[in-house]
Amino acid sequence: MAAKEYQQHFVSSSADSTRMFKANWMEALSKVHFSVPLIIYLPIMAWCLWRAQGSFLSQTGLFLGGLFIWSFTEYTLHRFVFHWVPPGNLGKRLHFIWHGVHHDYPNDKLRLVMPPSVSVPLAIIFYTGFRVLIGEPAVYPFFAGFLLGYLCYDMMHFAMHHLRWNHPFWLRIKQHHMLHHYQQHDRGYGVSNPFWDYVFNTTFNLTQKSSKTLHFEQFVNQLRMNNRLLERVRKYTAPNEVRAMGMYPYFRVIESEQDTEVIIDGRPVLMFGSNSYLGLTNHPKIKEAAIEATTRYGTGCAGSRFLNGTLRIHIELEEILADYLKQEAVLLYSTGFQSNLGGIAPLAGRHDTILIDERVHASIIDATRLSFAKVLKFKHNDMEDLEKQIMRPEADSLKYIIVDGIFSMEGDIANLPEIVRVAEKHNGVVVVDDAHAIGVIGEMGIGTGSHFGLQDKVDIQTGTFSKSLASLGGFVAASYDVIDYLKHTSRALIF
Ligand SMILES: Cc1ncc(COP(=O)(O)O)c(C=O)c1O
Fold first, then answer.
1. Which backbone phi and psi does 112 adopt, to 5 degrees?
2. What is the reported pTM?
3. Which among 408, 448, 465 is the best mutation to test ligand 1's pocket, defined by most ligand atoms within 8 Å of the CB?
4. Please, which residues have CB within 8 angstroms of residue 432's CB and are 6 or more apart in sequence?
5. Is 488 a catalytic residue?
6. Counting atoms of ligand 1 from 1, which one is nearest the CA of 340?
7. Where are the domains of the chain?
8. Nearest-CA neighbor of 478 among 442, 433, 444?
9. In sequence order, what are the residues at sequence separation of 6 or more whose Cβ sits closer than 8 angstroms to the Cβ of residue 214?
10. N or C: which terminal CB in the chain sees fewer CB atoms within 10 Å?
11. 468 and 437 in contact (C-beta within 8 Å)?
12. How many of the other CB atoms lie within 10 Å of CB of 237?
């Protein structure tokens, strides 16, 4: 296939290639573990060596001859057979089956070596041909060498795609094959060695300045860096282990609107994981309002709120929300996660202390990491422990007690009356993340503070629009002064 045509092909990094056959048994047969050629051909090689006769020198010569002829065969097969696309759709399909699939999905381990249904007839043809040409017993050491070449090719090919060897010699060979895969499909046909590419002038020009191909040093450095990165990320095997058990529950694609029933894989299923507590995600009025806002203001803010991104509707929403939450002021953020990062971190300085329930949301934990304050955890909803922990810092340290109003994983409610009591006793600041409480508990759904009749004791209330409020974004609600301070110090908002 012409290089240009080949390059239009996509290259997937998926470890699994596309299905090739409708029939399950054909599909299963088309997937071959890389060790299969070893299992088949090592015994045949041993048998050939056992049958070999003659002087050590002549046998070694024949063996090396077989190895050499293999390398030529490898080049010729790859260049003229694997890369040949017969005309018509059937031709294209055949080409895809025997080689195209490997170019499209080079990371599929099970479509790297030829299936025995192809390699065994080929081996018989070669063996018979050599036997006719050089006769017995010369064919035995010769064919053993030929098979060794084939096995080395298969194993090196596997290693190139799946093992991370760093030796420069190996990397040079690997570079040749990777350039064939990722830059020029009509060059670099020698896989186990580039010798015949030099002979037939199909190698890559790595020295020409104008060449698009990478220079060797650059390539090696990139590969080394990649190897270290890959080694690190591949150590994290938990997702693949769960996938292998057929129990992977994440990133399921929903093909319908979010509702109590959704479509997954074309089938209706009941939705138990939704945070759309009021079922407003599909409300016609909310959709209409979103469309109207888009028509009026466009699809983005074109800058940070701090500089040029504050729109009229931001201010309107902040005012309406402050009224609704019975707080002095509100500041909007682009997600609930950001509102915790941006609303907590700038407030807690070097001499301050943050006390968090051990089960608070990840965004609060990350906020504490971004702050310079000392962080203390207390046992989940354990007020005795809170009281114990709050005694630890210096008396004049400013103390923040931060909890989820309704805990995101457990679903239980923070013991706000006790938290307020402890805070008052120790001059603490009460911060409540009401992501799961807004729209659910309290008067008109304004959250945990209201639920306990303590809304005026919640110094800082954070929340999200991504749950009951059927949208995206988050907010921090607090006194006018706190919000004004955040407006000028909160990095998550300003930048
Ligand atoms: C308690 C809590 N806080 C904050 C957030 C973050 O909200 P958002 O999805 O808007 O980033 C969540 C979301 O899961 C949450 O459960």
1. -110, -40
2. 0.63
3. 408
4. 402, 403, 404, 405, 414, 416, 447, 448, 449, 458, 460, 461, 462
5. no
6. 4
7. 3-208, 298-494
8. 433
9. 175, 179, 206, 222
10. C
11. no
12. 9
Among 362, 348, 456, smallest CA distance to 408 is for: 362
Name the residue at shortest CA distance from atom 3 of ligand 1: 435
Cβ-contact 258, 278 below 8 angstroms: no
Max CA distance (Å), the chain: 101
Q: List pLDDT tens digits, range 357-409.
A: 999 999 999 999 999 999 999 999 999 999 999 999 998 999 999 999 999 99
From the CA of 408, give the closest atom in ligand 1: 16
pLDDT value at residue 449: 98
Match 């490898």 to its residue by tokens. Answer: 74
Distance separating alpha carbons of residues 383 and 226, to the nearest angstrom? 49
User: Residue 137, preceding bond cis, omega within 30 degrees?
Assistant: yes
Pick from 211, 201, 186: nearest CA to 3:
186
- With b meaning 16 or more CB within 10 Å and e meaning fewer, what string describes 368-393? bebbebbbbbbeebeeebbeebbeeb
Look at residue 217 and tell me whether its pLDDT is greater than 70.
no
Burial class (CB in 10 A: 0-12, 13-18, 19+), 251: exposed
Ligand 1, residue 275: give the atom nearest the CA.
14
Q: In this predicted structure, what is the pLDDT of residue 69?
A: 97
Nearest to 193 by CA among 110, 338, 74, 344: 74
CATH of domain 298-494: 3.40.640.10
Assigned token pair, 211:
């060449």
**What's the 232 CA to ligand 1 centre distance in angstroms?**
29
3-state secondary structure of 460: strand
Annotated active-site residue 467? The verdict is yes
Question: What band does 98 get if pLDDT is binned at 50, 70 and 90?
Answer: confident
Amino acid at residue number 451: H
Contact 264, 254 (CB under 8 A): yes
Which residue's CA is minimally distant from atom 15 of ligand 1? 435
The answer to whether 1 and 92 are in contact (CB under 8 A) is no
